[in-house]
Amino acid sequence: MAITIIPANLESQSALIVETLRRCLTDRSDFERFVWLYINCPDGRARAWLVLDDDRAAVVGMAAAFPRRVYFGERHATAWVFGDFCLDSDYRSLGPALQLQKACLSVLETNESAFCYDFPSPGMAVVYKRMGFNVSAKMLRLAKPLRVDRKIKKMIKNPAARWLGIAVVNTLLKIASSRVNAEESLELSLHAQPCGKEFTVLAKEQCAKFGICLQRSAAYLNWRYIENPLARYEIVTARRDGRLVGYIVWTQAGGDASIVDLFAEEDPKMVTQLIDEVTALAEKSGVETLSVSINEAHPWHSLFSEMGFRLRDSAPVVIIPSKTFQHKIDPQLTGWYLMQGDRDS
């Protein structure tokens, strides 16, 4: 089969992109998702590529790259995160995947692009290896059990024994997850309005301390979490004397919840209180398992472990620096502040 990769026009081919994604990747693909993810990001518009079957004159797949403004030390630049990579079932072989991924890498040809990154599936990791790019880092999913209702219901059939088991184990988990001692000068609260300038200020103040770090401006946070049509997020802020010093973002889906972002001054006690606050909110909402996905070199990896989060699984991350960018970037040496909220949706 002969295929051709062409750049997509986000205006004239929006319906085609939405339908291709719905057919090949996710039933959540619709025009609202497209406008939000491809058009409205404050860091810039996405780039996309379509896969054409030359014989059938039909679109059989696509992929996209989404711009992200990042800090690396005190400098800043544009990075690209890959996503929405999909092919019709008859075309899911190494050849078409290689052609499509090479097209995505064209985003690195401009001087403004520092690097691109991806969270590949096992199949895509093979594609990257064939292209000469190895796994650069790992995302670790850490999880903390808050309740065991589902697990015990599967294990115990007798209703009375099941009820007793749930009550006992949940009580033990609650005792083990007792609240940390709160700092009196720290005010934690649910942020119920759009993020303001103080979030941008915090990002600029802390950027040089975390190596490579996505620019968490107010505009970006509002787009990523407040305006996101795919999920509902809650932001909990930490303030001292009215000044924003940190925040944490989480979302719930049924009996499971995830911490997707956590950004704060370098204050382990304050970060611990933010994690503890979300844990308490999740418990009240009936969450059974609270998870967080962070890269293995994340500065607060150990804090999560100390608070009872345990490794459940890991996934690869591929980071490809640009050859034309004027500053040398090695994510493995520079450090990398990466969380679930830094990937595509």
Can you walk through the features of this model?
The structure is a single chain. This protein has 345 residues and is an alpha+beta fold. Strand 3 (58-72) and strand 4 (75-87) form a beta hairpin. The chain is globular and about 70 Å long. Strands 1, 2, 3, 4, 5, 6, 7, 8, 9, 10, 11, 12, 13 and 14 form a 14-stranded mixed beta sheet that branches. Helix 3 (94-104) packs across helix 4 and helix 5 packs antiparallel against helix 6 (159-176). It folds into two domains: 3-119, Aminopeptidase; 141-342, Gcn5-related N-acetyltransferase (GNAT) (Aminopeptidase), CATH 3.40.630.30. The protein has eleven helices and 14 strands. 32% of the residues lie in helices and 33% in strands. The two termini are 31 Å apart.
Write the layout of secondary structure elements.
Blueprint: E1 3-7, H1 14-24, H2 31-39, E2 47-53, E3 58-72, E4 75-87, H3 94-104, E5 113-118, H4 122-130, E6 137-145, H5 149-155, H6 159-176, E7 186-191, H7 197-206, E8 212-214, H8 218-226, E9 233-240, E10 243-253, E11 256-264, H9 268-284, E12 289-295, H10 301-306, E13 310-321, H11 331-334, E14 336-337
Parallel strand pairs: 4-5, 8-14, 11-12
Antiparallel strand pairs: 1-2, 2-3, 3-4, 3-8, 5-13, 6-12, 6-13, 7-9, 9-10, 10-11
Helix pairs in contact: 3-4, 5-6
